[in-house]
Write a structure and sequence with these properties.
Number of domains of chain B: 2
Radius of gyration of chain A: 30 Å
Strand content of chain A: over 45%
Shape of chain A: elongated
Largest interface: A-B, 35 and 47 residues
Strand content of chain B: 35-45%
Largest sheet of chain A: 7 strands, antiparallel
Helix content of chain A: under 10%
Number of helices of chain A: 2
Number of strands of chain B: 16
Distance between the termini of chain B: 74 Å
Oligomer: heterodimer
Shape of chain B: globular
């Protein structure tokens, strides 16, 4: 290729490839960032976490020769602001940064929390931004719950005795607990003329930790009495099959456990799916089970 | 003649199949729960079940958070009962007795809704309208509303049909006077004792159905007395619990007994997509 041909080729390249300046690229930049936030409470500690990671795609024709990009994560817990930024890099580079904060919460106090995650271009400014927040109760909640068998009520109902704990070794004695439904119950034993209404959910509790039937037992609550009364079981077995009920039949409930903070607010401590409770009625056997956050216990009863 | 015999034989053979189809068709129409629809300043409750009165009252109770007890009737005549034997079970047990159910089906009632707080007399007027509409429907039994005071109402069965199709008076079984020794017991044990004493006195079995066992086992009550209605004793027990409870007492036409269940009072709420949740009324 001679010199004149090289000159013409270079001119064409400039004409077709460098038609958009860095400052004019703002509308063409396409951010691909993932933002993750979490709040954990363990004993008296409240921990908050914000992260952002991803990259920006630059459209063809947009040449950014001098611009640099970076990302930032803001974690503002109890009005104390923290920003964490990644290092600067090329416009299409992958960036990641995160910020963790923690405080010791006082029960009954609500702590404000705000977060923000942003990606910034030195040439065009902010490329993407998202934020949020809320109020976090400074209240100790159990991190674990285990279940033990503790006798029976009226032959066919099982008394379950629970122990709650957290890694900080908090004492929950005296705190109030209640149950709710994490999901609708299902009742495979019921038909429209059974002697009792269909099982539609749990009945609410409530319990005092180390009170009621487990008085004086550190961090225990109970009993959680699970199962049907004997007349209901008799009805299921004697009359259910001719009404189309197959024995064995099973009832399943999804128990959401909550603890009351001094402010009066109820804070759930079980996972979103809750504890699973099953009651199986067979021809000569009733089995009541409680599947908690950490394991399960079943009570097979010959009746 | 041969044709007549053939038709008669065919009719006899096809009867059980027809009955089975009827059971299936009836069950298809049953609603899982009665529905409350709000249109303008009125509410319409739609129920379809063997016990439409019970379902209607439960729906109203949950919609407005009202305490409404329900006491079923001991249906026994062919005017009030239908065959409810499951077709598959019938096929496997061709000679067995089978099952019956109260002959309840579709029921609808409408009343004017009151905006804001509803007074006790206004609640009573609405319940009177619902029960009056039911008594005029073709569903089995007749009921009356009783004001039990302190914001609690009972809808109590008063008439069934006898085998001649005539109304027959039923004395509510919970009105039976009984005696239990005044003692401090758990609410659970006290209810159990009341029902056992009532069964002995009335010669009709009344058993404990569904109960909030945790609450009942924790609550201690001192209840007793002589010549006091079972209803009054039960109300004494319920007045001591930390959660508001109401009862639904159902009659099993298969076992010829009553089952009484004590249920936490809840109030329904609906999110923007119409999803229904129920929260305890404290």
């Amino acid at each position: 290729m001679n010199r004149s041909a090289q000159f013409v080729f270079g001119l064409l390249t400039l004409l077709f490839c460098c038609c958009v300046s860095e400052g004019q690229c703002a509308t063409g930049l396409n951010p691909h960032f993932s933002v993750y936030t979490s709040v954990t409470r363990d004993g008296n500690n409240i921990s908050t976490y914000v992260s952002i990671s991803g990259y920006t795609s630059v459209p063809p024709g947009c040449v950014m020769t001098t611009a640099t990009h970076h990302v930032g994560a803001e974690n503002k817990l109890n009005n104390v602001d923290h920003w964490t930024y990644s290092a600067n890099g090329c416009p299409t580079c992958y960036f990641s940064t995160s910020d963790s904060e923690a405080i010791v919460g006082v029960p009954g106090v609500l702590y404000p929390w705000g977060w923000d995650a942003t990606s910034i271009c030195s040439a065009v400014g902010q490329v993407s931004n998202s934020g949020g927040g809320g109020s976090l109760p400074g209240c100790t909640v159990p991190a674990t719950e285990t279940t033990a068998l503790d006798g029976r009520t009226n032959t066919t109902q099982t008394n379950f005795n629970q122990t709650i704990a957290d890694t900080a070794g908090d004492n929950f004695n005296g705190k109030m607990l209640q149950e709710g439904d994490a999901a609708p119950a299902t009742d495979g034993c019921w038909w429209p003329t059974a002697i009792a209404p269909k099982v539609v959910g749990v009945t609410g509790g409530p319990w005092t930790v180390a009170g009621n039937n487990v008085s004086g037992q550190l961090n225990h609550w109970g009993w959680d009495i699970i199962g049907n009364t004997t007349p209901i079981i008799d009805d299921y077995r004697n009359n259910g099959p001719s009404h189309g009920i197959t024995i064995p039949c099973t009832q399943t409930l999804h128990q959401k456990m909550s603890i009351q903070c001094p402010s009066g607010a109820w804070i759930p401590y079980t996972p979103p799916a809750g504890n699973t409770i099953t009651v199986k009625v067979d021809h000569a056997l009733v089995t009541n089970c409680r599947y908690d956050m950490n394991g399960f216990q079943c009570d097979p009863i010959s009746y | 003649m041969r044709l007549a015999i053939f038709i008669a034989a065919f009719a006899l053979l096809s009867l059980p199949a027809q009955a089975q189809d009827e059971v299936k068709e009836r069950h298809k129409k049953y609603l899982d729960r009665a529905e409350v629809h709000h249109i303008g300043d009125s509410a319409t409750v739609v129920a379809n079940s063997p016990r439409p009165m019970a379902d209607t009252l439960m729906a109203v109770s949950e919609e407005y958070g009202w305490l409404i007890d329900f006491e079923d009737l001991p249906y026994y005549s062919s005017y009030d009962l239908v065959d409810d034997t499951d077709p598959a079970w019938r096929a496997a047990h061709p000679g067995a007795k089978g099952s019956t159910a109260a002959a309840g089906a579709a029921f609808q009632t409408q009343f004017t809704e009151i905006k804001g707080a509803v007074s006790i007399p206004e609640q009573e007027n609405i319940l009177d309208k619902i029960v009056s509409d039911y008594n005029e429907s073709s569903n089995p039994g007749k009921f009356v509303v009783r004001n039990e005071r302190d914001g609690r109402f009972s809808v109590v069965g008063s008439y069934v049909k006898n085998e001649s199709g005539q109304d027959e008076v039923v004395n509510p079984i919970l009105d039976t006077p009984i005696m239990i020794k005044t003692e401090t017991r758990t609410a659970y044990d006290t209810l159990d004792l009341i029902l056992k004493t009532l069964s002995d006195k009335s010669k009709i079995k009344v058993v404990l159905g569904r109960v909030p066992s945790n609450l009942m086992a924790q609550t201690r009550v001192t209840v007793g007395g002589e010549n006091i209605s079972a209803r009054a004793l039960i109300l004494q027990v319920l007045s001591a619990t930390s959660i508001k409870l109401y009862w639904h007492m159902y009659y099993s036409t298969d076992s010829k007994l009553y089952g009484i269940s004590f249920l936490p009072l809840v109030r329904a709420s609906y999110d923007a997509s119409g999803r229904r949740t129920a929260e305890l009324v404290q």
